[in-house]
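Long-time lurker, first post. I've been practising inverse folding by hand and with some scripts of my own, and I keep getting stuck on stretches where the structure tokens seem ambiguous. Below is the full token string for one chain I'm working on. Before anyone asks, I'm not after the true native sequence, just a reasonable design that respects the backbone. If someone could post their per-position residues I'd love to compare against what I wrote down in my notebook.
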């Protein structure tokens, strides 16, 4: 997972989805996850996933890293389905639920800078936990740069692959050095916070929405997904013959999002 790529896309994006309120995006992601959890129809679950992909297309998020990152849970879900699902359809539903939830969460990460995600969830988490999440995210970039330097140094000292055993030993030493550096970094960060008067809570203001229409569209999409999931769960006998309608509708929405994104890209160029 390239955290720096995700952060760059979230910060540099200029789409209406990027400008929407972080609270709205987290709430809509929760609605999508609830819809995926409620439904027992694989086509309805696919419709929720297509809705998330349509929002990502409208946000002009690069599809390759977005789908790759959201696809990781499919590996573990497939193993779980293989071990416990009674038939192929039930296994497909398990995988679809995992991928749909991941698509919703990853969309939030690709369109919302992490400090804003942190500022939103900080309101419901204990102070120590919220601050730890925020400082951990900051440390990821510092440790990532340090790891890059250590890997380069290890390769240069071991002959750049000409001696596999020596390269492996140098890499292990570099990782051990990184662990020690992480502990030292944590101590220095705490000392700096204590000197600056840290009192057990880092306060980050939540950014307001700069695109109210995008907020409304996201909320409408999330509610529609949840309503469809509940409807096909409650009245599944009557609605089963019409299970093709949700994915057909979301495919039309996806096509419209692709056309809109292409037009916006041409207008920007």
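-- Answer (accepted) --
I ran through it position by position. Result:
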């Amino acid at each position: 997972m390239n955290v720096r790529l995700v952060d760059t896309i979230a910060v540099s994006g200029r789409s209406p989805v990027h400008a929407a309120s972080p609270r709205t995006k987290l709430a809509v992601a929760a609605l999508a996850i609830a819809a995926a959890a409620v439904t027992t129809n694989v086509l309805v679950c696919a419709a929720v996933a297509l809705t998330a992909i349509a929002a990502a297309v409208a946000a002009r998020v690069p599809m390759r890293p977005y789908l790759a990152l959201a696809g990781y849970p499919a590996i573990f879900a497939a193993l779980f389905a293989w071990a416990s699902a009674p038939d192929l359809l039930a296994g497909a539903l398990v995988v679809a639920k995992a991928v749909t939830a991941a698509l919703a969460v990853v969309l939030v990460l690709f369109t919302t800078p992490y400090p804003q995600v942190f500022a939103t969830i900080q309101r419901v988490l204990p102070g120590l936990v919220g601050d730890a999440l925020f400082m951990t995210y900051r440390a990821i970039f510092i440790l990532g740069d340090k790891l890059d330097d250590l890997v380069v140094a290890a390769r240069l000292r071991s002959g750049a692959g000409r001696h596999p055993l020596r390269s492996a030993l140098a890499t292990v030493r570099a990782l051990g050095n990184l662990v020690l550096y992480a502990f030292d970094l944590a101590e220095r960060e705490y000392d700096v916070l204590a000197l600056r008067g840290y009192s057990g809570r880092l306060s980050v203001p939540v950014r307001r929405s700069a695109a109210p229409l995008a907020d409304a569209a996201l909320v409408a999409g999330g509610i529609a997904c949840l309503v469809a999931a509940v409807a096909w769960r409650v009245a599944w006998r009557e609605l089963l013959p019409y299970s093709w309608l949700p994915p057909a509708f979301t495919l039309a929405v996806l096509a419209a999002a692709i056309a809109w994104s292409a037009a916006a890209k041409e207008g920007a160029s």
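A couple of notes from the structure itself: DSSP finds twelve helices and no strands in the chain. The chain has two domains: 3-118+207-268, 124-195. Happy to go over any region you disagree with.
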